[in-house]
Structures are given as structure tokens and as C-alpha cells.
Amino acid sequence: MGKVFKFHNDVDTDQIIASQYLLFPSVEEMAPHTFESLDADFAASVKPGDFVVAADNFGCGSSREQAPSVLKALGVKAVLAKSFARIFYRNCINIGLPAIVCRDLYDNVQAGDDIELSLTEGTVTAGSRTFSCTKLPAHLQGILDQGGLIASLDK
Q1: Contacts of residue 111, Cβ cutoff 8 Å, sequence gap at least 6
Q2: For residues 121-141, average pLDDT
Q3: N or C: which end of the chain has fewer CB within 10 A?
């Protein structure tokens, strides 16, 4: 169970982590600046196990892997969106952060709501309602379970 942090359509990678912070030597040093232009309190407020819930085309823009990496570093359990930019989605899998398409969730939750994600069932529960989401194929779930693509290849 985690809290919802809600974002609109077309959130680009520069809004997730602005380019000036890419000069920092580590993702941990970048993470406090996550979503700085959209929600200045995000990095201080998000707790491990919380969720980013977004509308369409989340993660559009550049191919920077730091965008999903800062979310994972802050303990975001998963990003749930109506749709994702293809490269952001792939980068999430690569680094071991679940990116789940859940078309009906966004319009039925508010920021601060508690939700629960079942990756194995492909569902999200918010209050008394359960929403169907993309259920990841076993091979993708295996990559996530091992911490990402490179980690899965090292095992």
C-alpha cells in the first residue's frame, strides 16, 4: 500500500529530472530534484512504496535513463499511467522500476489516496475499487524481480 502522487499528460523527462542535474555525479544526488518544476515538495514527500500515477504519454522527451532512476532511488514502487513514451517504458524495465499501463486509474484517484498494486494479478486497488492493468509477461516480471536488465544478465 502506498500513496498516489498524480501528474498530468505529457510529463517529459526534463520535468522528471531537469538537465542541469544530470551533471551531478550520482543518481542519489540528483534524486532530491525530482519533479522540481512540477511539485517542489515531491522528493521530500514521497516515501518508499509510494506510486506515481500519470495520464497519457508519461516520460516523453529524451532517452535519459536518469528519469526512471531518480524515481527508483526515491523508493517509488511503480509508475502507473494511461500510456508511456516508449523509451521511458523500456528504461524503466532496464533499471527494474515497474511501469504499468492502467488506463482507468488516473481518472478515479486523487493525489494522496492509498492504492495497492498486484503485479502478479495485474490489478490496482483503490479504496473499494479494483482496476485492471497490464499484467507483465513472465520474462519481463523476471527482469524486474532481478533488479533490471543488466542485473538479470549478471545472474
Answers
A1: 4, 5, 6
A2: 94
A3: C
Chain position carrying cell 517529459: 12
Q: Read off the pLDDT of each residue in 53-75 and give the average, rounded to a whole number.
A: 96
pLDDT at position 155 is 64
> Which residues make Cβ contacts (< 8 Å) with residue 20, sequence separation at least 6?
none
Encoded amino acid at 149, one letter:
L
Distances in Å between the Cα of 129 and the Cα atoms of 8, 87, 116, 121, 123 are 22, 31, 11, 15, 10
Task: Report yes or no: 33 and 43 within 8 Å, Cβ to Cβ.
Answer: yes
d(CA 88, CA 136): 16
pTM attached to this predicted model: 0.94
What is the 8-class DSSP label of residue 95?
A: H
Q: Report phi then psi at 6, rounded to 5.
A: -105, 135
DSSP conformation class of 137? P
